[in-house]
Amino acid sequence: MNSQTRPVSGQYPVYYDESYYPRVPAGADPLELLEQQTAELQQLLGGLSEQQALTAYAPGKWSIKEMVQHLTDTERIFAYRALCVARGETQSLPGFDENAYAAESDANSRTLSELLAENEMVRKSSLALFRSFRPAQLDRVGLANNNPISVRALLYVLPGHEAHHINVLRERYLPLL
């Protein structure tokens, strides 16, 4: 599998070009980035107290715990989409409202260590899934939320999405602690 070949335009929603793909450096292996990000997130947040992990950078924004749960939920959804498209699903997969998911997650009642451990387990599962795909499966295009999406695009959006949120944690949350 050549995971370093970037997805081509038309195989993903245009807004990924603005938000997530630029965060995956040219020539980088997204699988390696995913492995590194697991340790990076643990290093960034693992030493926080439970009270610190309840910090939100502004009223109405997610807490750090909710952010970790969002990363886990989104990874599960994107991995599911990748599985469906790789296996030839032809129906459009549903979208999701990340704010509604966060509100229902009850992340703030869980410990940060539980949330980080769950995130790590989901990441290991995602890595195993993406490593199982053949090159032809990576280039399959399906529909998610009525937008075209390839398995390869989903492989790239995962580290880009996480890099986006790690940046938000560094710039907006951690300075408050």
TrEMBL record:
Protein name listed in UniProt: DinB family protein
Domain DinB-like: 34-167
Organism expressing this protein natively: Hymenobacter jejuensis
